[in-house]
Amino acid sequence: xxxxxxxxxxxxxxxxxxxxxxxxxxxxxxxxxxxxxxxxxxxxxxxxxxxxxxxxxxxxxxxxxxxxxxxxxxxxxxxxxxxxxxxxxxxxxxxxxxxxxxxxxxxxxxxxxxxxxxxx
Length: 120
What we know:
alpha+beta, Thiol Ester Dehydrase, Chain A, six-stranded antiparallel β-sheet, 6 strands, about 50% strand
């Protein structure tokens, strides 16, 4: 849904069967930044979550939806001009047909989002 428009995958590795590390590039020209916010663009939290959902869905080979967000911390805002590329690190385990996941969105030493939750 957002891939290819709002962000582009630059590189992706799967260090093991239950981990995916993805470097993505934000499209700073995307229209969402005109309203969020003019002259000071910020990646919306809902777009960060959608990105995690899409990357995890791609890693496991099926479409997933967030069922439960056990812990979600937005630690810093992402300005796509300051951090045009970020790394999304996801570890997951399958539990009764669902996927328990931990995800982090970061750029170098700055962490933007930490998430723990369940996708089905």
